[in-house]
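User: My collaborator sent over this chain with a note saying "see what the structure looks like." That's all I know about it. Can you take a look?
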Amino acid sequence: MTRRLFLALKAIALGSLLSFSINASAATSNPQVLIETNKGPILVELYADKAPKTVENFLTYVNEKFYDGTIFHRVIKNFMVQGGGFDKYLNRKPTHAEIKSEADNGLRNRIGTLAMARTDDPHSASSQFFINTNQNGFLDHREKSSSRAWGYTVFGRVIKGMRVVNEISHVRTGFKDGMGDVPAETIEIIKARQVK
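Assistant: Without extra context I'll predict from the sequence alone. Here is the result:
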């Protein structure tokens, strides 16, 4: 092997290694969103590698400032806090098209994880999400034979501000405008922004 050929092969190998290292680094840097509430900030990390369509959907709403002025409208102690669909007057905000479930991504509904809210149809998630405040394994994907077994798509986790989430989870709730588990005091998402 000539020295020139050896150096060329070495350069190609180093270039490939560098490219792999940059791509691996990009793949492991998950997007983050800061959700500022009237109870304090919540910083979340999103699993774009495991739930790409769900994360893309969530970030679309974040970047459109859709969540600004919405509320956590459903709070159940020792279960979860849900928001992202209603304003403080309980008016439902118009949303984009519903997305296909990615609940079969291997992620589980554990304390501090974010998951998409939906109706009985597994593929009906739009803007509403919830934060698990308990180990909610019964919400995990098991199989695709029924709506319940489909589970709920986990797409991120709280990395700072779980104290705020727990404070929200302990507020007094009741019925309002035909909805149950509505906090007696307004729990507002002042704004949600992607952290650069």
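A starting point for your reply to your collaborator: Residues 3-28 form the longest helix (26 residues).
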